[in-house]
Amino acid sequence: MQKIIYRALALSYGAYFNSTAFFSEKEAGRKAFGLFSTPRKGRVLPTQEAFLQKHLAQRPIINELALQTYHWPGPGETVLLLHGWESNTFRWRNLIEKLQEREFNIIAFDAPGHGYSEGTSLNVVTYAEQAQHLIDMYSPKYIIGHSMGGLATIHNHYQYPNSSIEKIVALGAPAELSELMDHYQKLLRFNNKVLKGLDKHILENFNHRITDISTPTFAKSFSKPGLIIHDELDTITPFSASTRLHENWKNSQLITTTGLGHSLQQEELYLCIVDFLNS
């Protein structure tokens, strides 16, 4: 029943965007982007509070939003963690344990509209920019991103190749914004006029076209070491996203898992990440 309701709601949004586009392509694109960028979950749950509140750190104001950071102090090199869509810093708890065992200095933050951070929307361009503010603040040597956080991590390195980052880890990261938009269009069944309005909205507000956001394209210019991790049975982000990224990233390794799904939560896997950072 819940799936039926969700499907009906999606189609109603698509019909609304189509009717809006009949009168204004620009307005249809703005509204479609607003829905696309609005998370439905990802705020801190009661079961997550105890872990996160012990490590609350600064709340820097970035693009007029207070973003919640977390700190697990250590004498070693600094690592910055970026969670994925509709998630928050709690998703890193098991990796943080392994990083602490190796005495890394760990920084994480909740993206806008997620966790304890302000805001109601999130997109990959602003996520990458906000990550750069944190990189400027903490000078991490390593950066790790999951899912949308992995996409933002790669986009960040493409935009800011001369930052303090020396190694990059991407887990289950999407490859192309165009593929995400294609799925969005098929789910809602909005027409190409809406899609055109979406593309124009992104260009006018973020100086990118939909086709510009491509991790395989970005990776062609990368020289720093990268570790790419993806489950071949991932139902959220196709495994091919990481194989294409790996093919174009000359100094990268690809770890393939089976059965871990999109979350990629496994002790052995996290030990591989720690070993990669220490190598």
From TrEMBL:
UniProt key word Hydrolase: yes
Entry's Gene Ontology cellular component terms: membrane
Stored Gene3D superfamilies: alpha/beta hydrolase (3.40.50.1820)
Pfam family for this entry, one: Abhydrolase_1
Molecular function terms, GO-annotated: monoacylglycerol lipase activity
Domain AB hydrolase-1, first and last residues per copy: 78-204
Keywords noted in UniProt: Hydrolase
Domain of life: Bacteria
GO terms of biological process kind: acylglycerol catabolic process
Matching PANTHER family: HYDROLASE, PUTATIVE (AFU_ORTHOLOGUE AFUA_2G14860)-RELATED, MONOACYLGLYCEROL LIPASE
Identification of the protein by name: Alpha/beta hydrolase
Species whose genome carries this gene: Arenibacter aquaticus
